[in-house]
Write a structure and sequence with these properties.
mainly beta; six-stranded antiparallel sheet; five-stranded antiparallel sheet; globular; binds dtdp-4-keto-L-rhamnose; isomerase; RmlC-like
């Protein structure tokens, strides 16, 4: 697998090595030893999540706080999304900065979203199945979030406003400024 830096420390793009033959393809979608050796990060994932969404859905921006913080290794099983990670680690030189990367079933890219980041994605294809590993369990009481369209963050979700589909929960998230 190849590792590509994003400019945000510890937030990396992973390109798996794919073996193709007459039957189709094979790749290791996660190998703890290879992951840890190549990235220098911990691969102690304890929960897998999967979601299905239609075009225009924007999920995020989400995180869990304190001892419940989660790192996520995210990828797309079907379709294409624009995946977004925002550094909200106190004292980080890139605090408030975000990266976005297109993840698809076709490019098979994965994004490692470190603990202390907000995470979200928008669906660019007709539908998308999204899969991610988490290194800490879901804890409802620790959920925190920032509005997807926060002006200070300035994320371009590549979805026209008239087509954006947001959950009721995500329409009442905080501003980025209120996190400080
Ligand atoms: C995230 C999560 C949700 N749930 C439940 C709570 C709720 O009833 C239902 C749907 O939850 P949500 O609306 O929060 O799902 P969703 O908006 O897809 O939330 C996810 O968004 C992406 C961007 C992330 O980064 C994830 O960490 C997570 O926050 O599933 C769990 O049981 N376990 C979980 O780990």
């Amino acid at each position: 697998m190849d590792i590509q830096e994003t400019g945000l420390k510890d937030c990396v793009i992973i390109k798996p090595r794919v073996f193709e033959d007459s039957r189709g393809y094979f790749f290791e979608s996660f190998n703890k030893k290879t992951f840890e050796d190549k990235t220098g990060l911990s691969g102690n994932f304890v929960q897998d999540n999967q979601s299905f969404s239609s075009y225009g859905v924007i999920r995020g921006l989400h995180a869990q706080s304190g001892e419940f913080a989660q790192a996520k290794l995210v990828r797309v099983l079907k379709g294409e999304v624009l995946d977004v990670a925002v550094d909200i680690r106190p004292g980080s030189p890139t605090y408030g900065k975000h990266i976005s990367v297109k993840l698809s079933a076709e490019n098979r890219l994965q994004l490692y979203v470190p603990r202390g980041f907000l995470h979200g994605f928008s669906v660019l294809s007709e539908t998308a199945e999204f899969f991610y590993k988490c290194d800490n369990f879901y804890e409802k009481s620790a959920e925190v979030g920032v509005m997807y369209n926060d002006a200070d963050l300035g994320v371009d979700w590549m979805i026209p406003a008239s087509k954006a589909a947001i959950s009721d929960k995500d329409l009442v998230l905080n501003t980025f400024a209120s996190l400080k």
